[in-house]
Design brief:
Layout (H helix, E strand, L loop, with lengths): L1 H13 L3 H78 L6 H10 L13 H4 L8 H39 L2 H9 L2 H7 L19 H5 L2 H38 L3
Helix pairs in contact: 1-2, 2-3, 2-9, 3-6, 5-9
C-alpha cells in the first residue's frame, strides 16, 4: 500500500502536475489522520468495554458482600435486643428483689456476657483505585464513606466490650457466679449462632447446684445496678447507630441492583 501511494506521488511530480499533487498530499494526510483517529477510537472502545466488564464484576461482588453485611448486622441487632431485654428484667429484679427466682436471675445475668460486634467484609476498592470504575455518583459516594460509617458503630461497641471485660466479668468473678455464667452462655445455641458457624460443645461441666448463690445475695451487690444500666444504655445506642447502617446498606444494595446489567 505504501509503495502504491509512493508511485502515485512520483507520477504526479514527473508529469509536473503540482496542483493535483498538493491535493493528493492533503488527501493522503487526511487519510492518515483518519486512520489514527479510528485506531484511537477502537482502542478507547476496547478500554471502555474492559472497564465496564470489570465494573459489572465489582458490582456483583459488592452485592454479595453487602448482603452478607446486612445479615450479620441484623444478627447483632437481635443480640443487643436480647441484652437490653435481659438488662431491663434485671433492673426490675433489683427494684423488686422479693421472691426472685434464682434460675431466672442467672439466665438474665449470663446474657450480659455477650459482646455483639459488627465485623463487615472489608474490600480494597478505595486503596486499589477500583472505586473510580463505579460510575454511579451516589453509589460511589456511599461506598467511599462506608468505612467512616462503620467506625461510628465500632466506637460504641468498644465501650460495651471494655465494660464487659473490665466490670461485668470481674463482678461475676467476685460474686462467685462466673463459672455458672459461662456455662449458661455456652449452653445457649443462639449465642453461638451470633458469634460463629458450625458445631460446638460446651467447654464447661455443669456447676454443682449447692455452689449457687441465692438471688437475694446477688441483687444486694451495689455495682450490679450500674453495670446493668450501662448494658442497656450502650447496647441501645449501638442499635440506634446500627439502624443507620442498616438503612445505608439497603440503599447501597438498591443502587447496586440498578447498576447491574443482566
Amino acid at each position: 500500500m505504501i509503495k502504491f501511494f509512493r508511485h502515485i506521488r512520483r507520477s504526479l511530480i514527473n508529469d509536473n502536475k503540482m496542483g493535483k499533487y498538493f491535493k493528493y498530499a492533503i488527501g493522503e494526510i487526511f487519510l492518515v489522520m483518519l486512520g489514527i483517529l479510528l485506531a484511537l477510537q477502537v482502542n478507547t472502545w476496547n478500554e471502555n468495554r474492559k472497564d465496564n466488564d470489570k465494573e459489572q464484576q465489582i458490582l456483583k461482588q459488592l452485592t454479595e458482600e453487602y448482603k452478607s453485611n446486612l445479615l450479620q448486622l441484623e444478627q447483632k441487632i437481635a443480640h443487643r435486643k436480647k441484652i437490653i431485654k435481659a438488662g431491663n428484667k434485671l433492673l426490675d429484679y433489683i427494684d423488686k428483689p422479693l421472691n426472685v427466682n434464682t434460675d431466672s436471675l442467672y439466665n438474665q445475668l449470663n446474657v450480659l456476657i455477650g459482646n455483639p460486634t459488627f465485623k463487615p467484609i472489608q474490600n480494597n476498592l478505595i486503596n486499589s483505585g477500583d472505586i473510580l470504575l463505579i460510575k454511579n455518583k451516589k453509589l460511589n459516594q456511599l461506598l467511599t464513606t462506608w468505612p467512616s460509617s462503620v467506625m461510628h458503630i465500632k466506637e460504641i461497641e468498644n465501650i460495651w466490650n471494655n465494660k464487659m471485660w473490665e466490670s461485668v466479668i470481674p463482678l461475676f468473678n467476685d460474686m462467685g457466679i462466673l463459672r455458672n455464667g459461662f456455662y449458661k452462655w455456652w449452653n445457649d445455641e443462639q449465642n453461638i449462632k451470633w458469634v460463629m458457624d458450625g458445631s460446638f460443645t460446651n467447654p464447661f461441666k455443669k456447676p454443682k447446684t449447692d455452689n449457687t448463690i441465692i438471688a437475694g445475695e446477688i441483687l444486694k451487690t451495689k455495682k450490679l445496678e450500674g453495670i446493668v444500666s450501662s448494658a442497656v444504655s450502650v447496647n441501645y445506642a449501638a442499635n440506634l447507630q446500627s439502624q443507620v447502617l442498616h438503612k445505608r446498606i439497603s440503599e447501597i444494595l438498591d443502587l447496586l441492583n440498578q447498576e447491574i446489567k443482566d
